[in-house]
């Protein structure tokens, strides 16, 4: 779409979808959508048409930018529409139904800190809400304006700040601008033989700044995986001044300044730059998939792995539904996808120990247990680095999933995911109850049975992060309301188990009710006071985190 | 001393020193003090007498506690004097010279959250400053009151809250009261086969709450070692209410509430309880010491180790002075103390790889290099779990050091430590400049040469934490001023290299100037606002972190 990306440092020949996930040319076509819909009872017989920007009624901007900032600002209606929402299922449906979120009056693309500061100054004077925008991949309503307390809305797109500015190869760290998209970030680091290895599912369409502002969860299934742990220092432009923390490997000097801004979702300031910790690219890799007949046994195996010293890079447990959906197993087995990697030493022995541990909890690795695609690579795990059939199937499905979700949305289906984290004592019941209660709610809301699958994306010695996929019929024209109902049921289960409203998708606006229940009230007082001090005019991403 | 410890859950037959480190009976006697002093030119010929509480003029309390709280409060002069300061060198000297810090009017020992809340309510109404107090081992002026803006001062001693309340063996975590001292904490966990493995030098004389409030650095030389990383949730009593965070393995829901209180040093609330992550007790251990002729080569070896996948539990590099002082080497070598441990698998192979890596950077392990005590255990490292002579020498010295410091203080010497952390690019010059500039300042201040040693206590892929020991002559009656001068010189070097004012000793009152320079101003605004919201009457540990 015209005008959506003017990123001199991050050029691409492909066009982003304004209404759905990722690349416009990667979406399933009408035939594929129809075929998918046919698998899900209660959906439409033909896909909804792909929405066109020119069909939207886009009002003229309510404010005029000052001449001094005009070079940073775009008022193109298509560009503005593309910045009106993130990429949650509910956003996609709203676009399909011609009812997107509030379209921002302006899109600003600053190129340096001073530009950000000038834009904030102007917005503060004019009571213009500022919604920081990275790759726009929020799935929790993090990048749209709701309400009417401001004179106008400006989307602050950081992607013109997309460079790796400095690399410290000795200390394995780099200073990187916040608007750098995942692929560009890794491309720029590759010449130095280094990598951040932060690969959320949104990797292609999200930025370092977005990861930092939302405490994104990354590549590693165990150990340090949240982007938080890779931060040496932050530069944050706030209406009250620019915050530059010192670049440190560790410190005990008061509460961490960085940890206040990590997860602040644009409500306290605009993260413009960070020094982040890097790694050498892994030279040794090995992976395997282990099948389990019994999901609870698989949970015990995963807990044992998480509590061992093995530190698998990948340790994702797919329940039987998720395994079937991704093609990792078709016999009702759950599948544990294991992967090890190191820049330093061979990982065969660790994989073998991990497989043995999984077997001791009832896992099947050798493919002889009648589990179809599972354990397709015979013999030593090292023989098939990255190559196990079930592992590959799962990986391809992982990257394609958001596109398929949008295809299902075009068939009038409800198709969405959500995630959480809880201590091990809560995990088995929590998963069962989400499956049961969301499934029952779907039948009640739509009259058709739903699919509720679960995988563990990240595991810790003390708990795990379950990730749920819901596929259900919709109610024509009312799909968002159906989803909101199902999500409310799910959130009740999470709250009952004191499981977090989000492990790595952020709070945004969609998770505010759950977040407000979870957050200790004295901390809310402190956060509100901090916001009042840094954003006294209340222009920064209003409605996110605190009011 | 009478009255200093009324800890029903943590009984001990030994008596704490009111004026110096640790146990009263562990201090060097006059003869040992004299012998130590003789090694350091410019010190006294006889030790200063051990100070007696009864020689202090302790005024009557300026406030009377209400009857409803009287059972929690002690006004015994000895108890109050013992709560007047922490255990920094400057505190010890002030006690020796009969000029301790402001003696609190009352010592309160609540037994539950309600007691803490009631005490805070009363203190707020009466404008009584509240100084939270765990084991009292602060070395940065964290537990004393300075100034006169309050009507009275209450030391809030948490050690009557010293129990492990709940253990989750499946998820390896425990709910523990903040006043639990290190040894009692480990004793209570041991019955469950679990351990926190947080062993700061102050372990015997510090509490979980103190560790949390000061972001203490712990046992592990690499990886996760700050207590921060072991926290699942916190209970914090603030004047604005009780903050209970949810017990979670990880979360991405907004800025971490726990991270605001971790390092808040009693200025935002009183931490009363935490769920912390535990581990199984290690069953496999191995250690070795590697000698280096050249300190910069040793630094490179340590960096390579920190950037490998080896994760040594111990990876402490002693420079030649430190190695000599601790008896680890007497030939001018620097010594790298390496240790591995695991509950899970043998660690021999890892130690062997680590030793090989150290050798590739010029390290000597086999003892054949003429380095005396170094590498005393021949053959396989696994043959001597914990047993290497240099390792043992260093460990004994480590625990005895604070007592020796107090003995030197009695000889009129300046004897103190400080620590920092910085990225690898800064480390070599930073260490050189601290040695040189503090050494020169000591000569200027006292007329005698000083010893300035360095060790790395914790190392990270991106940097390290150097820890300095300064031994110098004093100026009779003016020792504190001499130390303050030397510390100011050291702090200038740290500031020049943007090295943190503290890696794990906390800010307290002594580090405020350095902290104020280091902390980004917008974060200071946010912190002040948070303090205003949680402690509107400004009674909590006044002078710490923010004003």
From TrEMBL, chains A, B:
Top-level taxon of origin: Bacteria
This protein's UniProt keywords: FAD, Flavoprotein, Oxidoreductase
Domain FAD-binding PCMH-type: 99-281
Biased composition (Gly residues): 365-378
Region of interest: Disordered: 362-388
Family: Belongs to the FAD-binding oxidoreductase/transferase type 4 family.
Name assigned to this protein: FAD-binding oxidoreductase
